[in-house]
Design goal:
By secondary structure, the protein is of the alpha/beta class. It has 2 domains: about 150 residues, Rossmann fold; about 45 residues, no CATH class. It contains 9 helices and 6 strands, in the order E-H-E-H-E-H-H-H-H-E-H-H-E-E-H. It has a 6-stranded mixed sheet. Helix 2 links the parallel strand 2 and strand 3. Helix 1 packs across helix 2, helix 6 crosses helix 7 and helix 7 packs across helix 8. The radius of gyration is 18 Å and the shape is globular.
C-alpha cells in the first residue's frame, strides 16, 4: 500500500487585504514541518498541491526546511481539485438567509469583524447552511460538487501511484475534510465540523491502493508542540 500525507498550509494572513499569503508564523510553521520530516527520514516520491499561493508557499518553505537550503521547491503537480472552497461567497449568500430566519443573528453579523466570537458564530452557521444544500447562488458550487471534485483529484493520485509510494498533497482544510469524508463515509455536516479542528501545517495520513483509501491519523502537529508555546497552534 502507499501513504498519502495531506498537509494543511501554514497560517495565512487572516484579516489582511490578501488572505492568500503566509504570515511570518505560517512561514515558520512550514519550515519547521520540513525539518521535522527530515529528522524522521520521511521523503516523498511525488508531491501535489492546490493552486493557491498559500499552498505553493507552504510547499516551498517545507522543502527549504527539509533540505536545509534556500532553494526552489521541488516540482509540484498543482491542481484546482485541492483548492479551498470559497467562504466569502458562501457568507455573502448565507448571511441574509440566516438573518431572515432569525433577526437577532444580525447582532453577530454587525460585530463579526471586531469580535472573534461573533465571527466564529457567523462563519460556522453560514458554512453549515451551505453544506446542508440550502444555500444556492450563481457561481456557488455546492458542498457535494466540491467534495466530489476533491475525491476525483485524490482518485487520480491513487490510480497514478503504484505500491509502496509516499505522496504529499499541500492543501487546505476543505479538501482534507473531503478526503476524511471519503475515507470514513461521514455526513456532510460532520465532515465540515471535523475540518474546523485542522491546525495550520498539520498532517493527516491515509493509506491507499488504486481503489481503496483508509485513514491512518488526523491533524498531526507534534512539530509545533515541540515548541511548547500556544502561539504556534493556529487555525486560519
Amino acid at each position: 500500500m502507499s501513504t498519502l500525507f495531506m498537509i494543511r498550509h501554514g497560517q495565512a494572513s487572516f484579516g489582511q487585504a490578501n488572505y492568500d499569503q503566509l504570515s511570518e508564523l505560517g512561514i515558520a510553521q512550514s519550515r519547521l514541518l520540513g525539518e521535522y520530516f527530515r529528522n524522521l527520514g520521511i521523503g516523498f516520491d511525488e508531491c501535489y498541491s492546490g493552486t493557491m499561493q498559500r499552498h505553493l508557499d507552504t510547499a516551498d518553505y517545507f522543502f527549504q526546511g527539509f533540505s536545509g537550503e534556500k532553494k526552489p521547491c521541488r516540482e509540484l503537480n498543482s491542481s484546482e481539485a485541492f483548492n479551498e472552497y470559497d467562504p466569502e461567497t458562501v457568507l455573502r449568500t448565507a448571511i441574509p438567509m440566516l438573518i431572515e430566519e432569525n433577526p437577532d443573528f444580525s447582532r453577530d453579523v454587525d460585530s463579526m469583524f471586531t469580535s472573534r466570537r461573533s465571527f466564529q458564530i457567523v462563519f460556522e452557521r453560514a458554512i453549515l447552511k451551505w453544506v446542508s444544500g440550502a444555500v444556492q447562488a450563481p457561481g456557488l458550487i455546492s458542498w457535494d460538487d466540491y467534495a466530489s471534485r476533491v475525491r476525483d483529484g485524490i482518485q487520480e493520485i491513487m490510480k497514478a501511484q503504484g505500491k509502496g509510494k509516499t505522496v504529499a498533497v499541500f492543501s487546505s482544510g476543505g479538501p482534507i475534510s473531503a478526503a476524511i469524508q471519503k475515507a470514513l463515509c461521514l455526513s456532510n455536516e460532520v465532515s465540515i465540523q471535523v475540518g474546523w479542528q485542522i491546525i495550520n501545517s498539520s498532517v493527516t495520513r491515509f493509506k491507499f491502493t488504486p481503489d481503496r483509501m483508509m485513514m491512518m491519523s488526523f491533524n498531526e502537529h507534534a512539530h509545533l508542540e515541540i515548541k511548547k508555546e500556544e502561539l504556534w497552534i493556529t487555525y486560519r
